Amino acid sequence: MAIFNSLGSNYSWSFVWQSLLGGPGSHQKLAAALEKRFGGQATLTYKGRDALELAFQRSGLPAGSTVAINGFTCYVVYQAIVNAGYQPVLIDVPPQQLNFDLKGLKKTHQLHPDLKAVVVQNTLGVAAEVPAIAKYCRQNNLLMVEDLAHSLGLIYDDGRAAGTVGDLTMLSFSQDKPLDVVAGGALLDRRSKPTTENFSATKVSPWQRAKNRAYPFWTGLIRGLYPVGLGRYLHAVLKRLHWLATPMSDNIQGLHTMSSAAARLLLRRLKNIDSEVAHRQKITAIYQKGIASKLQLVTDKDAACLRFPIWIEDRAELVKFLKQFHIYVGDTWYDAPLAPARYLPKTNYQAGDCPNAEELAEHIVNLPTHRQVTTEVAQQICARIEQWQNQLSAQ
């Protein structure tokens, strides 16, 4: 059996057939379910990045305002803010940490007194200092946006659920996210007077919607064929033909609405969110117990990591070693402060802006926690990493 961090690993074969068969969905029912869970007013979008861009379009902030984001994040977060007409500024993470802290926010605010908003993401499902950051934002009249792309179902230290703290909450249901339906996003406006203006309810092209529906089938087939040596060839052919939906290269301009098929699939998956979180907690706990503590970046014993991060001096060698056993962990979140690294030149990032994030990006390895990872698989991964460490020690 081949294990991947991604490549459609969130889907059961039941989900595959539901996706292929399609059928109408109810945007109204889904919006109501999200509003019940998080509060506020829900708007459904094609991707999480659309929801984040829409959040700032509706923010009411002066054009060109400065917005603070995590110094270790995805390029689409940066680009969504730029697209909305604002200026992102990165807050570096502390050494070997995944999220900026209150100290970093205060320092950034001192350097940028014109700061108007803060985007908080709980990277890989690891909680940021959200209660303290939220208090600071209230005291300083800063708009706070919670980015739940990695952390749907997370509970903060003060007992509040992620997504119920910020003024605005962005959700992503796209590839490899906690509730993955290939393409989906939502914005929850939790302010006392939410913006009611509509955005253009444009759908993506029929071809793109067809690729999204077929993606779970193709990736299931690829994963199944990898152990016999055929999966990599099928994967290469589908990529060359542009038949696989991709998370970063859709080349879709403007904002778009969620498809009815995605809304239908998401309503079903939303019912199982507690079991999905419990599974990730269980696999996270196995990694915490089975992997040397000096490699670990997560200390929270109740964490439900989207991917379990570890610190490896020579990442390429571990990735190569695990590949021998059909464990593929080479797609790194994140390989740059604004990742993927190939998108970094599209930003105004300068080397040294976030030195801790740069170092983290060189050494982080993600281990899978999705539904394909059973207790036995997680224990096997731990054993292989220990084997690799022992071989290094013996050299």
Decide which structural class fits the backbone.
alpha/beta
Q: What strand line-up does the widest sheet have?
A: 2-9-8-7-6-3-5
Low-confidence segments, ≥5 residues, pLDDT <50? Answer: none
**What is the H/E string?**
EHHEHEEHEHEHEEEHHHHEHEEHEH
Q: How much is the average pLDDT?
A: 94
Count of alpha and pi helical runs: 13
Spatial shape:
globular
Quick one: how many beta strands?
Answer: 13
| Strand content range | 5-15%
Q: How big is the Rg?
A: 20 Å
Distance between the termini: 30 Å
Query: How would you characterize the largest beta sheet?
Result: 7 strands, mixed
State the share of residues found in helices, binned by percent.
Answer: 40-55%
What's a quick, concise take on this entry?
The protein is of the alpha/beta class and 395 residues long. The protein has 13 helices and 13 strands.
